């Protein structure tokens, strides 16, 4: 009887670990910018059009997050990331999401390509184009950036801001 209970506890523990693995795998997915994944027949996802890219130099980084207090802009909590060379003007990105829900998008233009945020040179944008000021220190609330995504692809536009 004791051996049977120990086996049952071991099985429950194994199932808990197995169930946790997919949850941790949901973060930090580096993907290519495959616009074919954001057609009218696909989804769910976000088709993000970025306006006002300052120059064709450096790198663009676009990341999706769940628009929750626990995940929005938290280190390592991004769902998908696309990094590509910057092109001046307008750029478009496809960010598939795991399922219907509320998501936020953060965009950064690393103008000199050094991998660091240079506040006086680099640009940024976020879904719903929230105001960024001294009071929110560049991190507006998840409630300001949240975009509802259903079972289809949702198109949004963001405007780059530079200092």
TrEMBL record:
It holds the Pfam family DUF2141. Keywords: Signal. Residues 1-25 form the signal peptide. InterPro entries: DUF2141. The keyword Signal applies. This is DUF2141 domain-containing protein. It comes from Novosphingobium mangrovi.
